Structures are given as structure tokens and as C-alpha cells.
Amino acid sequence: MVTIFMLLKGGHIKITISITIDEGKFEVYVKDANGIETNIHTYDNRGAFGELALLYNMPRAASVKAVTPGTLWAMDRQTFRRILLKSAYKKRKMYEDLINKVPMLKSLEPYERMNLADALVPKQYLDGEQIIKQGDTADGMYFVEDGVVRITILGENNREIEINRVPAGGYLGELALVTHKPRAASAYAVGDVKLAFLDVEAFERLLGPCMELMKRNIDDYEDQLVKIFGSKTNISDIR
Fold first, then answer.
1. Which of 62, 78, 94 corresponds to the end of one domain?
2. Which residues contact residue 34 at a Cβ distance below 8 angstroms, ignoring those fewer than 6 apart?
3. pTM above 0.85, yes or no
4. 197/179 Cα distance (integer angstroms)
5. Which of 25, 161, 188, 223 sits in a 20 to 30 Å window from 34, CA-based?
6. In which region does residue 236 sit, left (phi positive, over 0), alpha (psi from -120 to 50) or beta (all else)?
7. How many structural domains are present in the chain?
């Protein structure tokens, strides 16, 4: 196994390149307070790494090790900054500010928040457009960047009943990801809405540290769950 980047601590470190994967498998490791390495992610023939240190002018936050032969493309600091820095920093900063408003994400480390910000995908919806459909399989969660989202459930005679509205800075869709159940409600745009979407794969990979916290804090969802599921039986099922 060949180490490409070693974890560096403190000091003035000259970071010169970021890497894009052409082919090959590469594992990412971070060290805990006791110096024990943990594999947090595996790149398989695609992906990029090393950009965080260039973007924030900070030491490498992790080690990347090649586990198969592979081919990488390197970009030097000057080229990286000229092409990507301005737009990437603006996007990441915007989403970091959004993420910092979500209580359940406070347990994430700074580098985890940066990775989460990178994984978010912008989506826009027009007034009245459906964002989530009740009964569908969950494909991710949403953070509301701008606008308001209306949450409804089906009542008697399939009549939709509004149970909540999520304003800018709020989030929705995480419930189905935590409970591993189909969408329990529908969501619609109220006016034009801008959202940041996190797909289910990224949710499980990046928000793993929050999963137990979300389950422990399920009481925060109790009023909403009672309205959605109709009883507390379903609540106890997911504790």
C-alpha cells in the first residue's frame, strides 16, 4: 500500500497539489486523538482529493493510500486557485453557513462539514412544484437555502393536509433516511425555492457520526411523527 498524502500536524507546510483520480482504488484515513488510523472513505476509480488543504491553506487533514495500481492527475496550487478557488470557496462557504444552522450537525468535525458542503447539490423548484412525494423511496434529504417548503400528509379520502412549513435554514427529508421507511409526507415549494440536496449515499457516508444522535433526539420529531404516523407505536419502532 503506497501512501500518497501523510497526515501532517502543525508547522508551516507547503501544500502544492490536488489530485483527480483517473483509475485505481484509494483509501482515506484519519487519526484519532490516540493516533489510531481509521478508514473513512474509499475512492474507486473516480473522485478527487487534496483540494481542502489548497482551498483553506491548511495542513493535510487525512492520509490517502493506494490499494491498487492507479493513475492520478495532479493540479498545482496556482492553477487550482486560478480555476477553482473563487467559485468553490463561495459555494462551500454558503453551504457551511447553512449547515452550521442545523443542530444535529454540530457534532461533525470541521473537515466533515467541509466534505458535507462539497456533497450538496443545488436544486430549484417553482411555486407549487412537488419536491417529495409521500410513499416514495427516500433518495436523500434537503436543506432550504431560500424560500419556504410546505409539508403535507394524506388524510381521509386522500385529501392532503398541511402539517408544517420549513423556512430558509431548515431541512426536510431526513426522517425517512433515519427510519429507513418510505417518505411519510409530501413537500411542495411555496413560491420559488432554492434547496441544497444531499443524496442517500452521501448522507450515510458523511452523516454517520450524527445517526445515533438523530435517533437519541427522536423526541424532537415526536409531534411531527405523531401527525405523520398517527400513533407513537411507529416512534418506538425506530428508537
1. 78
2. none
3. no
4. 19
5. 25
6. alpha
7. 2
